[in-house]
Amino acid sequence: MAADLLTCPLCGFAFEKVDTLCAHGCPLGAMCHLVRCPGCGYEFPEKPRTVSWMDRLLGRTATGGADLPEGVRPLAELESGAAATVACLGGKNGDRHGTLSVFGFLPGAEITLLQQRPACVVRVGETELAIDADIAREILVRPV
Amino acid sequence: MPTLETRDRPLPHAPGREGAREAATLVLVGNANVGKSVLFRNLTNRYVTVSNYPGTTVEIVRARADLGDRTVEVVDTPGINDLSPRSEDARVARDLLLESDDATILQVADAKNLRRALLLTLQLAELGRPMVLALNMHDELEERGGRIDVEALSEILGIPVVPTVAVRDRGTEELIEAIDEARIPRRFGRILEGNDEYARNRAALERVTDILESTWAIEQPRHASLRVRLGFWAMHPWKGLGVLGLVLGAVFWFVGLLGAGTLVDFFEVAIFQQRIGPLVIRFLDALLPFGHAHAVETVAHPIGLPVTPVHEWTVGTLSREVVVPGYELAANGAGAWWPSVSRFVHDLFVGEYGLITMGLSYAFAIVLPIVTTFFLAFSVLEDSGYFPRMAIMVNRLFRKMGLNGKAVLPMILGLGCDTMATMSTRILETRRERIVTTLLLALAVPCSAQLGVLLAMTTALSLPAAMLWVVVIVGVILFVGWLTARLWGASSSEFVLEVPPMRWPQASNVLVKTYGRLKWYLKEVVPLFLLGTFVLFVLDELDLLGRIADIGEPLVTGWLGLPSDMTNAFLVGFLRRDFGAVYILDAATGPNAVLSPHQIFVAMITITLFIPCFANLLIIAREHGVRVAVRMSAFIFPFAFLVGGTFHQLGAWLPIS
Question: Which of A8, B164, B257, B387 could pair covalently with A13 via S-S, beta carbons 3.0-4.6 A apart?
Fold first, then answer.
């Protein structure tokens, strides 16, 4: 199973190809070599761009800031008091997604950022959540 | 966490089901901080622990309730977010639901936070049990201009839905009636299939959003109340540090000065030395006479209120002339067997190492006031919702030790009792974090009893020396934590923590929690104190104390530069660290003080880092296995002496005396 997992270069979400968000009956059909991440909706070629040793040396990974689509920013760069919708939870599909989802913190959820330091605190509905700065850098949001 | 076992009644043997709707058991389920425990109290008229920090009511509380004409067994469960066995709490709640298969489920929801509640409702529906949904804190929803279409919601879910305000006992009657009508909810199972928890939650939340759209509305609050603002200040980058400082200062005054100073003085001097001691001595002298005469001394008890560590607002002094344990044998007293037996029994109870004059007096006069004030302060902070904010403040620092902010709760609880704190490391996610926290607790976090005694010792030191002691201990925690993070190379688990709303602590909650913890503590500490005293007494009777002191001499005198009889302090420190510390305190500030400030400093560092008490060691072995406990001891014992000895050798360069 692990071999079939695709990892979104934007948010790091790992998913199976069958979960891709591409609409069924897309005219491109089998010709299309793009997949769409169910976590954030980002479209990318199925074979990920390789990270050169130079990139690694400079500390760059495939999720480099330059690749972010228009209007999407890491949660860690949101200003206090700003509202946003969650685009992607980032990281590997696992515990973090489960933990965040029970609080209603999911792609599409409306959040308000309360503070960034010393830890990122967001309000989701009536729940206030403290999130580590490292995780906040991986979570992507669309400011409203 | 401490238990309130007395509240834990056994389940009745399955009573015959007289009717289809007969509820033999009623299980309360819900998210954290929705008022489950208050509702439980309303239903049963029995009080239970109510907690603000997600994850403190690990114990299950049961009670009988007369609902209408029936008697029902009501069970309270810890707050959970979903049924996945992620945390200990959720496992407990889930197991409880699965084992009582004839139970009716009463889900308690925060009416303001219905989204999360319904996520749980959909999962509970999978169990196929009769259910009732209580929409608690309904008044707060109305204040916020919100509304819930209760009937529509009841229709959609297929179960009775009742708005309640548990803190004002509103809606309780309606709820009791609704429990009779409990029905098996509609299943939304189709969308919830699949192994992936995230995918299931996502699908369920979509369904919840549909339900909420037609039944529920709320508005954001327009102005923040003082409580809410206080909650923000407590986690503000720099205001939060101020709040942290204020909180620690207040706790220090209450526990360190009032508890360990004024109250200990009162219990130790006014109660034990002035009243109980003389009374028991006279009683035993009358019962078992042997030729001896007790010394009579004037014991003064100053009455006052502490202001700072060195200033006190004094009211007056109460002096009494009383007999003290020390005595001189009459010339003709020795030899015969009966007076020897009398003397043995006499010394066993009221001698230098007497069970009453030393054991009980240490346990009740010195340790009890300190522990009581500590647990009171801890319960107030816990009930107010401050701890998660504290975790946010220290998260960055703890990350350096490969832990995250959540580990602050066991560490703070460790300042009360390391044994209890070791048990509470269960709230941490990975085994590595649990073990590292346990190690730091066992190594360098002094429990309140020990801390009180250590603080009392600092009065014999200069201020720079006392500060240096704090710096050394905090430094050791950071260094060892950092070292373990380096050696084990793993980063901390992900820090995602719910921040509950701040609230004014409720007196009844605080008192009940303090009482439960104190009871637990006393059950553990008093037998060990008596055992420790007894061991000392027997060793003294057999003249072994001197010999043990000789064996320990190279280490204690040579390496640490302490008088050889300080070996006894470390010997009893095996039983309880605070007991050992009390012994040193006696030598440092007692009537026959023998230690120089430099020696006090070295002894303080060594006993603070010294091996955990016996009970703590047992719990470490229980929680993490015997091997871990043995390895920790094998590290801590030499390490404590290494650090203590190093500071002795550095002696001349330290700002002491």
Answer: A8
Report helix, strand or coil for B241: helix
Q: Would you call A102 and B82 a contact, using CB atoms and an 8 Å cutoff?
A: yes
Task: Tell me which residues of chain B have a pLDDT lower than 50.
Answer: 1-23, 49-57
B407 touches chain A (CB under 8 A): no
CB contact (8 A) between residue A115 and residue B202? no
Tell me the per-residue pLDDT of B509-542, one tens digit each, with 9 for 90 and over.
Answer: 688 778 877 877 787 777 877 887 888 788 888 8
Residue to mutate among A16, A85, A86, A126, with most B CBs inside 10 A, is A126
Report whether B595 contacts B457 (CB < 8 A): no
Dihedral sign computed on CA atoms, order B252, B258, B263, B265: positive
CA of A18 vs chain B CAs: smallest distance (Å):
13
Buried (b) or exposed (e) across B259-277, using 16+ Cβ within 10 A?
A: bbbbbbbbbbbbebbbebb
Q: Provide ipTM, 2 decimals.
A: 0.76
Residue A20 burial by CB count (10 A; 0-12/13-18/19+): exposed, middle or buried?
A: middle
Inter-residue contact B623 to B434 (CB < 8 Å) = yes
Q: What number of C-beta contacts closer than 8 Å exist between A and B?
A: 103
Give B102-115 pLDDT, tens digit per residue.
888 999 999 888 88
| Residues of B whose CB is below 8 A from A129 | 496-499
Please report the beta strands in B18-152, taking only residues with DSSP state E, as ranges in sequence order.
25-30, 61-67, 70-76, 104-110, 131-136, 147-148
H or E, element range at B395? helix B386-399
Determine the distance in angstroms separating the CA of B134 from the nearest CA of chain A, rounded to an integer: 18
pLDDT in tens, B408-448: 888 988 888 787 788 888 778 788 888 999 999 999 888 87
The answer to whether the CB of B70 falls within 8 A of the CB of B22 is yes
Residues composing chain B: 657
- Shortest Cα distance, chain B CAs vs residue A3, angstroms: 17
